[in-house]
Write a structure and sequence with these properties.
Helix content is 0%, strand content 46%. It is mainly β. It folds into eight domains: 87 residues, Sandwich (Immunoglobulin-like); 68 residues, Immunoglobulin-like (Sandwich); 68 residues, Immunoglobulin-like (Sandwich); 68 residues; 68 residues; 71 residues, no CATH class; 94 residues, Sandwich (Immunoglobulin-like), CATH 2.60.40; 74 residues, Immunoglobulin-like. Strands 29, 30, 32, 33 and 34 form a five-stranded antiparallel sheet that branches. Strands 3-2-5-6 form a four-stranded antiparallel sheet, with no helix packed on it. It is globular and about 90 Å long.
């Protein structure tokens, strides 16, 4: 039986939004168990200020809790001084301590009693996972059954008996010899519209055309089923689809209104260039006459056939206090002395104070966590929201001399067991730009490695272990001249040059989000043999938001390779919805990368006829379009009957 660890790792997804006119940020997160200590008095969780915090992982100490069920509460505080709703999770602290599992057994439908089920061969241990075993269902009646599984530890305690429902097929496996569909109304088995197939035990990725000309505009259901050569029909599967009411036309008017709808065509017009799609449109809204407080802005468009789109709505807030110069700035730690009584920070009066550096005296503070609070006052006497930040005062002992150091590669041999870095004299409490020789003869070539370095002071305390990554490369006959990375129009442009090349095969472009682990995102054929300057380029059309690290892997004809230096680009703006790699190509090895999954990808010819539809289940998925003839096609990514994005595909055989 598995014991619940005293320290639980909890993943929390907090989804907040910032309002249009007044940005808000989450500036602290706290939790408590069972009893609410009051807002601001929970246990703080280290976070980075942001409008939205996702996948937050932290440890909860449950040592002092009673065994049994407990409640964990989590809440966040925004920069406008408001607390979120306290979210609750129920968890259980195990009553029985962890011991090794020494028996696993199962039974079907009827419990023969503990210890009398069918034994499953296992290796005893604290946890049994990913165990595969065979269950004989030969003597069972056809239909639904339950399989039960339980385990026993070496203290004689049995786990909860887990149950799964399964079905023993009525008909033996047979080839599928008919596939048919119908729309909305069932004409009876065998009377649907037949789909041409190749007979086999499994039919997958079957593409066919459905004539919807006679259907009315609106929602419909398409039903599909198959029949095997024993005459048995499969379950009838159903998909909902929508027949568009209005064909695509150009948008010729965009208008908005605030709070009250003046009627279609009577809103405030927004200047646009007519087109099939209007994106990233920026315009100014006059809110001078609006009352202070919350308002709604509504936006809609009209096409050249006179049809109006759905009216979209956004909530925003008009500030109560008019803009004025900031004339005073102050801070305090932990306890509020009252407005105007905190430690003054000299500032130059202005409408905005930014990049202000404040020295804070923490001498009198105790070791541990503290909060620093900041606020400003304008020349109308109005105070801003008091913002606070958590920080930790660490006890720093009197500096001690560093007397030795050690390094190791890839695997930590334990403190004191690394390769010694000799210090001829005690080096003081800080060593800048210290160099030493490290033996890398035994390391594998052309493979990334990690080098770890740490020091020990005269009180025999070890420092934090620092790490750098490097690749031991054999000499490859390519002379690099330059390698640059540039962000342009939300894509990253990579350019590089070589002075000479001998027996060079190709370059592989690799990207990383942490600077350590790289993945291949593309390939460029090299010159092969050249004594003149060769120039290359590659475009990363789907960089990730945040930091992107790039390097080039130059591969020789005999398989030897080396790496370029690393270049990095930070992405702060919104990204493309999806990108096609290896495009143009002969249709083989096209990779679809998108952040929207699951989704569907439709392939259309220039006449608008759908040729193929592919389910996109992962963020990076390879598709095969080699069966299509040479030409230009349209790839449409859509989800829940809504078009997300459109890209062109060029097939060249």
């Amino acid at each position: 039986m598995k014991h619940l660890a005293r320290l639980h790792k909890i993943f929390l997804c907090i989804c907040l939004f910032t309002q249009v006119a007044k940005a808000q940020q989450i500036d602290s997160v706290e939790y408590f168990i069972n009893t609410d200590p009051g807002f601001g008095n929970g246990t703080g969780i280290a976070t980075t200020h942001a409008a939205s915090i996702n996948n937050l992982a932290f440890n909860v100490n449950t040592t002092a809790l009673n065994k049994g069920f407990n409640n964990l509460y989590i809440r966040s505080h925004s920069s406008n001084g408001h607390w979120s709703v306290s979210e609750r999770w129920l968890f259980f602290k195990d009553i029985i301590a962890a011991t090794s599992i020494n028996r696993l057994e199962y039974f079907i439908d009827t419990d023969p009693g503990f210890g009398n089920g069918t034994a499953i061969a296992i290796t005893p241990g604290a946890t049994i996972s990913e165990l595969f075993f065979t269950v004989d269902v030969t003597v069972m009646a056809r239909g639904f059954h339950n399989i039960f599984i339980r385990s026993r530890d070496n203290n004689g305690n049995w786990s909860v008996t887990n149950k799964w429902l399964f079905f023993k097929d009525i008909s033996p496996a047979a080839n599928i010899n008919r596939l048919e569909y119908f729309v909305d109304t069932d004409p009876g088995f065998g009377n649907g519209t037949a789909v041409s197939i190749t007979t086999g035990p499994n039919i997958s990725e079957q593409f066919f055309t459905v004539n919807i000309t006679s259907l009315t505009n609106g929602f419909h259901n398409i039903f599909i089923r198959s029949r095997d050569n024993n005459g048995n029909w499969s379950i009838t599967n159903k998909w909902l689809f929508f027949k568009d009411i209005i064909p695509a036309t150009n948008i010729n008017r965009l208008e908005y209104f605030v709070d009250t709808d003046p009627g279609f065509g009577n809103g405030t017009p927004v200047s646009i260039t007519p087109g099939a799609n209007i994106s990233e449109q920026f315009f100014t809204v006059d809110i001078t006459t609006l009352a202070n407080g919350f308002h709604n802005i509504f936006i809609r468009s009209r096409d050249n056939k006179g049809n109006w789109s759905v009216t979209s709505k956004w909530l925003f807030f008009k500030d109560i206090i008019p803009a004025a110069n900031v004339s005073k700035f102050e801070y305090f730690v932990d306890t509020d002395p009252g407005f105007g009584n905190a430690t003054n920070v000299p500032v130059t009066a202005g409408a905005t104070i930014s990049d202000l550096s404040i020295p804070v005296n923490t001498t009198a503070l105790t070791e541990g966590f503290h909060k620093i609070f900041l606020r400003s006052r304008d020349n109308n006497g109005n105070w801003a929201i008091t913002n606070f930040f958590g920080f930790f005062k660490e006890y720093v002992p009197t500096p001690l001399n560093l007397k030795t150091g050690e390094y190791f590669f890839d695997t930590d041999p334990g403190f004191g067991n690394g390769t010694i870095i000799p210090f001829t004299d005690p080096k003081g409490n800080n060593i800048p730009d210290f160099s030493f020789t490290a033996n890398i003869a035994a390391l594998a070539n052309n493979t990334p490695h990690y080098m770890f370095v740490r020091t020990k002071d005269s009180s025999n305390k070890w420092s934090i272990t620092n790490v750098v990554t490097f690749t031991k490369s054999v000499v490859v006959p390519v002379t690099w001249l330059s390698f640059t990375a540039k962000l342009e129009n939300k894509v990253v442009l990579l350019n590089w040059k070589t002075a000479t090349e001998t027996n060079s095969s190709h370059f592989e472009i690799e990207r990383s989000i942490n600077g350590f682990q790289f993945e291949k995102i593309g390939s460029v054929k090299s010159a092969g043999n050249s004594n003149s300057i060769s120039s290359y380029d590659f475009t990363d059309r789907l960089p990730v938001k945040g930091m992107n690290y790039y390097r080039l892997k130059q591969v020789d004809l005999d398989g030897k390779f080396s790496y370029s230096e690393i270049r990095k680009i930070e992405i702060k703006t919104a990204l493309p919805l999806f990108v096609l790699y290896n495009n143009p190509s002969n249709g083989n090895g096209i990779t679809v990368k998108t952040g929207i999954t699951p989704a569907l990808l439709g392939i259309f010819d220039i006449a608008g006829k759908k040729l193929k539809e592919i389910s996109i289940a992962t963020h990076s998925q390879q598709i095969d379009l080699s069966m299509l003839p040479s030409g230009t096609y349209t790839a449409v990514l859509y989800k829940d009957a809504s078009v997300i994005a459109v890209e062109k595909i060029v097939i060249q055989h």
